[in-house]
């Protein structure tokens, strides 16, 4: 998927027009998305309840998110050679450099369909 959502839309449209991706695949994806939205009541109550803003980022929610990551994280390659894996890091490891355009941008770290695509950086 391209970084920009408009590129994705253009590319997907082109692939559907060329019959590379069948329209039935698009219909299936839309059906699954709409089913969840209907189940969640997003068409009856489309706006966020601002009184719940204080619930965001609570310690217990972050702990649950960390647990989900621990249970679902998949390491595809652990270093260049099996004899010298990079992970786990030593307990007394010094500093770890996090670099790149996403290093200090919470919106980008959250992924495509979240804060960043809603027009916010996530750092405000």
UniProtKB/TrEMBL annotation:
Keyword annotations from UniProtKB, A to Z: Hydrolase
MF annotations from Gene Ontology: beta-glucosidase activity
GO biological process, one term: glucan catabolic process
InterPro entries noted in UniProt: Cellulose_Degrad_GH3 (IPR051915), GH (IPR017853), Glyco_hydro_3_C_sf (IPR036881), Glyco_hydro_3_N_sf (IPR036962)
The keyword Glycosyltransferase is assigned to this record: no
PANTHER family: GLYCOSYL HYDROLASE FAMILY 3 N TERMINAL DOMAIN CONTAINING PROTEIN, EXPRESSED (PTHR30620:SF120), PERIPLASMIC BETA-GLUCOSIDASE-RELATED (PTHR30620)
Protein name in the entry: Glycoside hydrolase family 3 C-terminal domain-containing protein
Species assigned in the record: Aegilops tauschii subsp. strangulata
């Amino acid at each position: 998927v391209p970084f920009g959502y408009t590129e994705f839309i253009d590319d997907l449209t082109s692939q559907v027009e060329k019959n590379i991706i069948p329209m039935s695949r698009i219909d299936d994806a839309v059906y699954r998305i709409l089913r969840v939205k209907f189940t969640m009541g997003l068409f009856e109550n489309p706006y966020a309840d601002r009184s719940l803003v204080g619930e965001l980022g609570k310690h217990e929610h972050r702990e649950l998110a960390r647990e989900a990551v621990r249970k679902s994280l998949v390491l595809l390659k652990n270093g260049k050679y099996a004899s010298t894996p990079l992970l786990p890091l030593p307990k007394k490891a010094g500093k770890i450099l996090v670099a790149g355009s996403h290093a200090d941008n919470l919106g980008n770290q959250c992924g495509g369909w979240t804060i960043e695509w809603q027009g916010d950086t996530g750092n405000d």
